[in-house]
Design goal:
0% of the residues lie in helices and 53% in strands. With 118 residues, the protein is mostly beta strands.
Length: 118
Protein backbone atom coordinates (compact mmCIF):
# COMPACT_ATOMS: atom_id res chain seq x y z
CA UNK A 1 0.00 0.00 0.00
CA UNK A 2 1.16 3.49 -0.85
CA UNK A 3 -0.13 6.63 0.81
CA UNK A 4 0.03 10.02 -0.86
CA UNK A 5 -0.32 13.24 1.08
CA UNK A 6 -0.70 16.52 -0.78
CA UNK A 7 0.04 20.00 0.48
CA UNK A 8 -0.26 23.44 -1.03
CA UNK A 9 -3.24 24.78 -2.89
CA UNK A 10 -5.55 27.65 -2.08
CA UNK A 11 -6.53 30.91 -3.71
CA UNK A 12 -4.26 32.80 -6.09
CA UNK A 13 -4.79 35.68 -8.48
CA UNK A 14 -4.51 35.23 -12.24
CA UNK A 15 -0.88 35.44 -13.29
CA UNK A 16 0.27 34.26 -9.88
CA UNK A 17 2.24 31.22 -8.82
CA UNK A 18 1.69 28.30 -6.50
CA UNK A 19 3.52 25.12 -5.57
CA UNK A 20 1.95 21.79 -4.73
CA UNK A 21 3.76 18.98 -2.95
CA UNK A 22 2.97 15.29 -2.70
CA UNK A 23 4.76 12.98 -0.29
CA UNK A 24 4.61 9.22 -0.73
CA UNK A 25 4.95 6.71 2.07
CA UNK A 26 4.44 3.00 2.53
CA UNK A 27 5.42 0.56 -0.21
CA UNK A 28 7.00 3.24 -2.37
CA UNK A 29 8.92 0.72 -4.44
CA UNK A 30 5.63 -0.37 -5.97
CA UNK A 31 5.39 2.88 -7.91
CA UNK A 32 7.70 4.36 -10.54
CA UNK A 33 5.57 7.22 -11.78
CA UNK A 34 4.17 10.09 -9.74
CA UNK A 35 2.32 13.12 -10.85
CA UNK A 36 -0.77 15.24 -10.88
CA UNK A 37 -4.21 15.13 -12.39
CA UNK A 38 -6.93 17.72 -11.92
CA UNK A 39 -10.69 17.83 -12.05
CA UNK A 40 -12.75 20.96 -12.57
CA UNK A 41 -16.48 21.06 -11.74
CA UNK A 42 -18.50 19.23 -14.36
CA UNK A 43 -15.41 17.94 -16.15
CA UNK A 44 -13.50 14.70 -16.23
CA UNK A 45 -10.26 14.23 -14.37
CA UNK A 46 -7.36 15.10 -16.67
CA UNK A 47 -3.61 14.72 -16.72
CA UNK A 48 -1.54 17.71 -15.66
CA UNK A 49 1.97 16.31 -15.42
CA UNK A 50 3.75 13.10 -14.44
CA UNK A 51 7.37 12.25 -13.80
CA UNK A 52 9.30 9.00 -13.63
CA UNK A 53 11.93 8.09 -11.05
CA UNK A 54 14.57 8.77 -13.71
CA UNK A 55 13.22 12.30 -14.13
CA UNK A 56 11.38 11.99 -17.42
CA UNK A 57 8.40 14.32 -17.36
CA UNK A 58 5.27 14.62 -19.45
CA UNK A 59 2.88 17.53 -19.47
CA UNK A 60 -0.57 18.32 -20.74
CA UNK A 61 -0.42 20.78 -23.62
CA UNK A 62 -2.49 23.24 -21.62
CA UNK A 63 0.22 23.64 -18.97
CA UNK A 64 3.44 23.33 -20.98
CA UNK A 65 5.70 26.28 -20.42
CA UNK A 66 3.82 27.32 -17.28
CA UNK A 67 4.01 24.31 -14.94
CA UNK A 68 7.08 22.36 -13.89
CA UNK A 69 7.04 18.97 -12.20
CA UNK A 70 10.04 17.79 -10.22
CA UNK A 71 10.84 14.98 -7.88
CA UNK A 72 13.03 14.35 -4.87
CA UNK A 73 13.64 10.61 -4.70
CA UNK A 74 15.33 10.89 -1.30
CA UNK A 75 12.18 12.44 0.14
CA UNK A 76 9.75 10.43 -2.02
CA UNK A 77 8.13 13.71 -2.89
CA UNK A 78 7.03 15.33 -6.11
CA UNK A 79 6.39 19.01 -6.63
CA UNK A 80 4.29 20.92 -9.11
CA UNK A 81 5.39 24.51 -9.61
CA UNK A 82 2.59 26.42 -11.29
CA UNK A 83 3.31 29.81 -12.80
CA UNK A 84 1.23 32.22 -14.88
CA UNK A 85 -1.91 30.69 -13.46
CA UNK A 86 -5.17 31.19 -15.30
CA UNK A 87 -8.78 30.96 -14.11
CA UNK A 88 -9.13 27.81 -16.20
CA UNK A 89 -6.51 26.15 -13.99
CA UNK A 90 -9.06 26.18 -11.18
CA UNK A 91 -9.68 22.59 -10.13
CA UNK A 92 -9.10 19.99 -7.48
CA UNK A 93 -5.57 18.70 -8.01
CA UNK A 94 -4.93 15.05 -7.23
CA UNK A 95 -1.57 13.45 -6.71
CA UNK A 96 -1.16 9.99 -8.18
CA UNK A 97 1.39 7.22 -8.05
CA UNK A 98 1.53 4.03 -10.08
CA UNK A 99 3.70 1.38 -11.69
CA UNK A 100 3.78 2.00 -15.44
CA UNK A 101 4.57 -1.65 -16.07
CA UNK A 102 1.74 -3.03 -13.98
CA UNK A 103 -2.01 -3.38 -14.41
CA UNK A 104 -2.54 -2.36 -10.80
CA UNK A 105 -4.77 0.61 -10.19
CA UNK A 106 -3.07 3.92 -9.40
CA UNK A 107 -3.03 5.34 -5.92
CA UNK A 108 -4.62 8.74 -5.41
CA UNK A 109 -4.20 11.46 -2.83
CA UNK A 110 -7.13 13.19 -1.21
CA UNK A 111 -6.96 16.18 -3.56
CA UNK A 112 -6.27 19.84 -2.95
CA UNK A 113 -8.27 22.77 -4.25
CA UNK A 114 -6.58 25.35 -6.43
CA UNK A 115 -8.64 28.43 -7.21
CA UNK A 116 -7.40 31.10 -9.60
CA UNK A 117 -9.51 34.20 -9.23
CA UNK A 118 -9.25 37.92 -8.71
Amino acid sequence: QVQLVESGGGLVQPGGSMRLSCAASGNIFSINIMGWFRQAPGKQRELVAVISRSGTANYADSVKGRFTISGDNAKNTVYLQMNSLKPEDTAVYYCTGYDAGSSSSPTWGQGTQVTVSS
